[in-house]
Amino acid sequence: MRIILLSGGSGKRLWPLSNDARSKQFLKLLRNDAGRLESMVQRVWSQLKAAGLSESAVIATSPTQIDMIRSQIGQQVPIIAEPTRRDTFPAIALSVAYLHTVLQADRDEIVVVLPVDPYVDASFFEQVKRLAELLPESGAAIGLMGAVPTVPSTKYGYIVPDRDEPRKTRYYRVSHFMEKPDEATATKLLDMGALWNCGVFAFRLGYLLDAMERKGLPASYGMLRDVYPTLRKISFDYEVLEREKRLIVLPYDGDWKDLGTWNTLTEEMGSMVIGKHVKTHGCSNTHVINELTIPILVLGIDNAVVAASPDGILVTDKAVSPKLKDYLEDTREPMYEERRWGWFRVLDSRKQPDGQGAMTMLIALEEGQLLRYRRNLDRHEAWTVIKGKGILTLNGEQVVVEQGRTFEVAAGAGYALRAEEEMECICVQTGDFSIPNRWEALEEEWNELIVEGAID
């Protein structure tokens, strides 16, 4: 069995903590068994490891999320990067081409596609294994998993099983689907034995390769990547699932929740208050999450979410928080991002009428990590080390830089920075802000930068 984890999302439903670079699955708001905060993707990856499935898993994502994934779950995780976002069918097709071409997976191998951010217990992944085992014997083309509903929810899609068919197995044939019904319809669906759609698909590798061939898509990973930006944006549900009649669904009678909005996420958070210098008084069922260094004081506000980050501040009643996405069409560029080497936060950004401007950032490098050799083509950079020590390579020369040291990087100059111990730096970029910041990557590995007689 092979696992494809889909990691996407525009980062709007949990704004201001989420953004295009840090979608909901990367927010460290859940508490693990050790009491430490972890993200949804960290939680799911640890559950995959416990179930013995992580070695067979790959993650399909956008280029903007690669650093975040590597930062949170490791540098060696196999990642399939979409050249552009094209929805779930192209992403799954690209992943199948990768399994077929790069990993040489057999056409009869079972592939299970999972979202990267479900809130489930360990039994969910045992049921995933059962689904992969049942699919060949069922004769179905695609197997699904459906969570047994606890309430007539209007937030989820439903899988309606064929209850008229005599059943001697643990699964049902699928009758039809129903997307996010109203409450009255949802109540009727529960009476029909409908299941919440978990977004899990299982199929033979060869089944999707054949479907791709019929649609004129190459099975070669490299060739499919080349034409990927031209593919139509369409979901797997519309392109494949709703056209296939040979479907089964395996019920899952355990904890399952989509933590996609503030009101659902806060139900599973281990703390009412997260962040520094936060105080509340007389607030019933109000959660406060503060990523800023300034204090937040909340008085007498019930059933609310107060969230603050460098991207903005949100104060919302929990009941209306799912509408948040409707108001975020014109949000600015992300002000905080995690990278494989650490993180950075924009402290200030301003632009003059003539396009000239300045941006001040706080940049943190973890011990042993490297800002790889590159050039900022348009902007001058002035750096001040405020914590730790590292080695700077600037135009072929290497020097030790530590707390209190300043250095400047002219536009177009090549530089790299390796942290000998955990570092924090203030970087001020100045130059032309009328166009997007342009970078040129140079040598990738630190050893390629070592010159005779230099510090290593």
Automatic annotation (TrEMBL):
Organism of origin: Xylanibacillus composti
A Pfam family the protein falls into: NTP_transferase
Keyword Transferase: yes
Listed InterPro entries: Mannose-6P_isomerase_type2 (IPR051161), NTP_transferase_dom (IPR005835), Nucleotide-diphossugar_trans (IPR029044), RmlC-like_jellyroll (IPR014710), RmlC_Cupin_sf (IPR011051)
UniProt record, GO biological process: GDP-mannose biosynthetic process
Keywords: Nucleotidyltransferase, Transferase
Highest taxon, organism lineage: Bacteria
Single GO MF descriptor: mannose-1-phosphate guanylyltransferase (GTP) activity
Domain Nucleotidyl transferase per the UniProt entry, residue ranges: 4-268
Protein name stated in the entry: Mannose-1-phosphate guanylyltransferase
